[in-house]
Each structure stands twice: as C-alpha cells, then as structure tokens.
Design brief:
The structure is a single chain. By secondary structure, this protein is mostly helical. It has one domain. The chain has 6 helices and no strands. The protein starts with a helix and ends with a helix.
Length: 136
C-alpha cells in the first residue's frame, strides 16, 4: 500500500472536486435548479463524507464500511430534522448548520443518499485501486 502522503495526493483533489461540485449544485440557478439544489447536492454531500472518512480509514474493509456508515449517519440526521429543540433550531439557523445537518425532512433525500453512497463507494474503490497500481 502507498504511504498516507502519497494516497493523500489523490484524496485531496477528490475532496476539492466534490466540495466545488456540491456548492455548484446547491446554488445552481439554471434548468431543473430545484432538483440540483435539493437532491443533486445531497449526492455530493454523501460522497464528501465518504472521502473525508477515507482520509482517516484506508483499509479494504473501510472502503466497504465507510459508505454504509455515512448512509446510516446521514439517515439519522435526516430523521433528526423532524425534531425541533431550541438548541438544534439555533444551529440550523446558521449557514454551517444548514450545510451540515439540514433544516427540512424529505423522504426524497433517501434515494439520493443511496446514490451518493454508491458513488462514494465506487470512488473509494478507484482511489484504493489507484494506490495499489502506483505501488507496483
């Protein structure tokens, strides 16, 4: 396996691409902007968390487990949007709160979370395979 520094060479640009695309989708104003803003951005949100976790956990097992845990945690966060205690509402009122935990529950987020986690899993597999290919 490659050193963490060499693997980071591939992970960091991946994170930057996903962050840029996520913000682009979140604030896109063209054709079908509602889907891009609400659901397309959710796909990149899932991929982002998969890549970020991969920075810390890079084993073969992690490549399989990270997308599953990202899906579980984001589903929990989605259901938490049904809960409105004052502390959570204050956090949701901030920009970072909106970005991290969202504000409104939507059933349609779940299929997009699945899609994002599947794409995140494929991305992690590719990063890991790239790492092994560069080693030889």
């Amino acid at each position: 396996m490659l050193s963490k520094q060499t693997q980071s060479f591939y992970i960091i640009p991946s994170l930057l691409i996903v962050i840029a695309m996520g913000f682009f989708f979140k604030y896109y104003t063209g054709f079908a902007h509602k889907w891009f803003n609400d659901y397309g951005a959710a796909v990149f949100y899932e991929i982002f968390w998969c890549l970020l976790a991969f920075v810390f956990f890079r084993s073969r097992a992690a490549v399989r487990q990270i997308p599953l845990w990202v899906f579980i945690i984001t589903c929990i966060l989605e259901f938490m949007q049904l809960w409105h205690p004052p502390l959570l509402e204050q956090f949701r009122a901030t920009l970072i709160g909106k970005w991290l935990i969202g504000t409104t529950f939507a059933w349609w987020d779940f299929p997009h979370y699945v899609l994002g986690c599947v794409l995140g899993w494929l991305w992690l597999r590719q990063l890991q395979a790239q790492g092994y290919a560069k080693k030889s």
